[in-house]
């Protein structure tokens, strides 16, 4: 018999280490009798202070995953909207205090959050729910269609020292 190790605080905050520069901020949803409003990004929050210069909506269908992807020049800032998403992170930055760190984050519409991913951190996303995942990205530079700041590896790559679980590989 093995006792579970502690993974969260008494307040429900994860104890898992994240790559240096990765930030999470709760997004408040304000309901009333007409519906809801959710603030997605505000420079006054002090989260990755570059201005908003571009944004897009991304979806992932149930049973699908995207990744691995990395940027060399810009931060991703994901405002999570709907569904259930698991994100795997790998910090390849040699100068980072968390170089080599592997971590995962689960995002859910039950606790909407803003996730910042800095350049040099590989990330892969998979839908772990039963409906489309939806998030808005506010990257720190506009997308350059002629020269994208996006580099990719397949999910089952041997170039990263990350062993994704069987459930990732089966998708």
Account of the protein in words:
- The chain has one helix at residues 166-169, and strands at residues 23-26, 29-32, 35-38, 56-60, 65-70, 76-82, 84-91, 102-108, 113-117, 121-127, 133-137, 151-152.
- It has a five-stranded antiparallel beta sheet with strand order 1-9-6-11-4, with no helix packed on it. Strands 8-7-10-5-12 form a five-stranded antiparallel beta sheet, with no helix packed on it.
- The chain has a single domain, classed as Jelly Rolls, CATH 2.60.120.10.
- The model has no long low-confidence stretch (mean pLDDT 92).
- By secondary structure, the chain is an all-beta fold.
- Strand 2 and strand 3 (35-38) form a beta hairpin.
- The chain is built from one helix and twelve strands, in the order E-E-E-E-E-E-E-E-E-E-E-E-H.
Strand content: 35-45%
CATH superfamily: Jelly Rolls
* Oligomeric assembly: single chain
Count of β-strands: 12
Topology as a string of helices (H) and strands (E): EEEEEEEEEEEEH
The CATH architecture term is Sandwich
Q: Termini, distance in Å?
A: 32 Å
Structural domain tally:
1
CATH topological fold name: Jelly Rolls
